[in-house]
Specification:
about 160 residues, Aminopeptidase, 5-stranded mixed beta sheet, globular, disordered C terminus, binds coenzyme A
């Protein structure tokens, strides 16, 4: 565990320098798990930063620690907090939980009337979501927006 002081905040333009390290970690974590979050391009991460739909965690000395972003469907009626990732050396010290709390608050602020949801097969994220007050639902309660279901295709990692 790494004990440096960690700052968790809405990502700003200056954080675009972390976009490649974020997508590389998404990819290597997915390979380590055999599945996981869909690989995103650095450009996609930068678009989320431009739209002020991303939360980042960094150390005081500027090392990247974690990231998560907001995805919307059906014209903002449904909102998901997606792409949660924490750098391996900072895991298991509550960073993911703090990021999810921050991005939940940001989602509520930007989309006061939206249904906020998350998809996960991971135990850590299930625990975090339960602690934050999320309730389990079936697929039929999620958005029927085709763009959402297209984004759910999971690439098999070989
Ligand atoms: C999943 C991930 C984001 C968790 O980050 P983290 O900062 O270690 O999580 P936290 O320290 O906030 O832990 C939250 C809870 O999950 C538990 N937890 C953390 N990692 C866990 C694991 N691998 N297995 C089981 N439980 C775990 C913690 O003990 C904690 O539970 P508690 O509140 O009862 O103490 C991180 O491991 C990661 O980036 N993994 C790869 C990408 C990924 O799987 N993303 C999620 C896609 S849905």
């Amino acid at each position: 565990m790494n004990n440096q002081e960690i700052i968790i905040r809405v990502a700003t333009q200056d954080d675009k320098k972390y976009s490649t390290i974020i997508t590389d970690e998404m990819e290597s974590s997915a390979m380590a798990r055999g599945t996981g979050i869909a690989k995103r391009s650095p450009e996609y991460i930068e678009t989320k930063i431009d739209e002020e739909k991303a939360v980042i965690a960094v150390t005081k000395t500027g090392d990247w620690v974690g990231f998560c972003y907001i995805e919307t469907w059906s014209h903002g009626e449904y909102v998901a907090n997606s792409g949660l990732i924490v750098a391996p050396s900072f895991r298991k010290s509550g960073v993911a939980k703090a990021i999810k709390q921050k991005i939940f608050n940001l989602s509520r602020q930007k989309y006061p009337d939206a249904k906020i949801f998350g998809l996960t097969t991971g135990l850590a994220v299930m625990k975090i979501n339960t602690d934050l007050g999320y309730e389990p639902v079936t697929y039929s309660e999620l958005t029927q927006d085709e763009a959402f279901w297209a984004g759910c295709k999971i690439a098999k990692v070989v």
